[in-house]
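We close this part of the discussion by returning to an individual protein. In the encoding step, the backbone of a single protein was reduced to a row of integers, each denoting a local shape. The sequence in question and its structure tokens are set out directly beneath this paragraph.
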Amino acid sequence: MDLLSGKGIVKRFGSLQVLHGVDITIRRGEALGVVGPNGAGKTTLFGVLAGTLPATEGVVHFEGQDISAWTAATRCRHGIARTHQVPRPFLGMSVLENTLVAAQHGAALRGAAAVKQAQDALDRVGLGALAARPTATLGLLDRKRLELARTLATRPTVLLLDEIGGGLTEGELHLLVDLIGTLCDDGLTIVWIEHVLHALLRVIDRLVCMDAGGVLAEGAPNEVMANPLVMSAYLGGVAA
């Protein structure tokens, strides 16, 4: 069953058109990868799906309902959560306090229920023992884990991951991919933009390649990566 979809998505910033009638469908329970060269429109598409950017044209559906007019906060409360390429924690708060904000505002929880949700999310990503630590002291891998924990604290149905592997060492990336794999095994629907292809291909069920604001190819990961148009798109630019 389709969980989240965009139909005919166009996004313009003034005279600059970034998305050109994109159609994308995310099926419940799948892990969908999104690749493409720099400037392909991948992060802009995430913004439209998550509600942080309004579509110029087109519609977004979630669980069969048109949510095009919903704010990002409303979409989050209904189960659409996203990470960002650069983690955005509240540096003046502890690790637990960061996750607690997500539980309170993203999942509308209060009191002990919010604290438990926040702590459970930290435990799930391996940060449970660091709950009291000041967030500003965390290294990049743990900030990435905290970014994941904050999304999980909102009780998402679908998780949009935007280049969460960027900047990590190979060993750190391996740990993060294993963590994302466990989330997939638990049945969470995941859409993942990533330029580190070998990491992405370890997790995903299906792959979409974007180029110049449109969908160039989609299907089984190995078939998409072997597509001459996809190979040309990558050879013609820097992967992102």
In short: The chain is about 40% helix and 25% strand.
